Amino acid sequence: MEQHLLDIVEWIRLQPILGIYLILALIAYLENVVPPIPGDILVVFGGYLASEAIISFWLVVVLTSVGSVLGFMTMYYFGYLVGDEIRTQRTRFWFLKYFDGEYLDKAEQWMYRWGQGVVLANRFLAGARSIISIMAGVTRLNPRKTATYALAGAFAWNVILIGAGWLIGDNWPAIERYLNLYGGLILSLIAAYLVFLGVRYAFRKWRSRDAKNNVDNN
């Protein structure tokens, strides 16, 4: 484990019990809003603290799950607010000005069909969590249902992480390696899927253009 993480862990350990709960909940929140934050391994550390009877297992599960869903819904409302701006391409955010409205229409169709299932699974999709929450807002999925599914997914994921930290105790830092491997696998699968979509889109465009040229020539 990197030194800065060890320093954070040691700092958390020295806090009063109430402070530990609040810090872990805040980490779970920020991990959704600022993805580089290594929230998962610090939640695992919460499980270790529970195994030492320093904090309550189920209370830390609940608080980190609430923090996670609040972070998810923060990004959801960001997506909700910029959705119309993307459609009109009059957004204040330069990086969204090049977002094709055609892709937004397709994303809406996909999210309306699979959206709540993706929201439920979002905690298990390392590297795509913020994108999922933003797209849920852009496509304006039902906010109450979205929050419910996000909470259920966060609760299940946090039970696994905190349970792992609780079970292996002092060896909890070893889980970081497996989280990194898992995250790399998920990102690779997502990248492969995006490449597939890009190739398929380009192929269809080429076929459409070729067919149009044949009609014009005839």
Automatic annotation (TrEMBL):
<feature type="transmembrane region" description="Helical">
    <location>
        <begin position="12"/>
        <end position="30"/>
    </location>
</feature>
<dbReference type="Pfam" id="PF09335">
    <property type="entry name" value="VTT_dom"/>
</dbReference>
<keyword id="KW-0472">Membrane</keyword>
<keyword id="KW-1133">Transmembrane helix</keyword>
<keyword id="KW-0812">Transmembrane</keyword>
<feature type="transmembrane region" description="Helical">
    <location>
        <begin position="149"/>
        <end position="169"/>
    </location>
</feature>
<protein>
    <submittedName>
        <fullName>Membrane protein DedA, SNARE-associated domain</fullName>
    </submittedName>
</protein>
<keyword id="KW-1003">Cell membrane</keyword>
<dbReference type="InterPro" id="IPR051311">
    <property type="entry name" value="DedA_domain"/>
</dbReference>
<feature type="transmembrane region" description="Helical">
    <location>
        <begin position="181"/>
        <end position="203"/>
    </location>
</feature>
<feature type="domain" description="VTT">
    <location>
        <begin position="37"/>
        <end position="166"/>
    </location>
</feature>
<dbReference type="InterPro" id="IPR032816">
    <property type="entry name" value="VTT_dom"/>
</dbReference>
<dbReference type="GO" id="GO:0005886">
    <property type="term" value="C:plasma membrane"/>
</dbReference>
<feature type="transmembrane region" description="Helical">
    <location>
        <begin position="55"/>
        <end position="82"/>
    </location>
</feature>
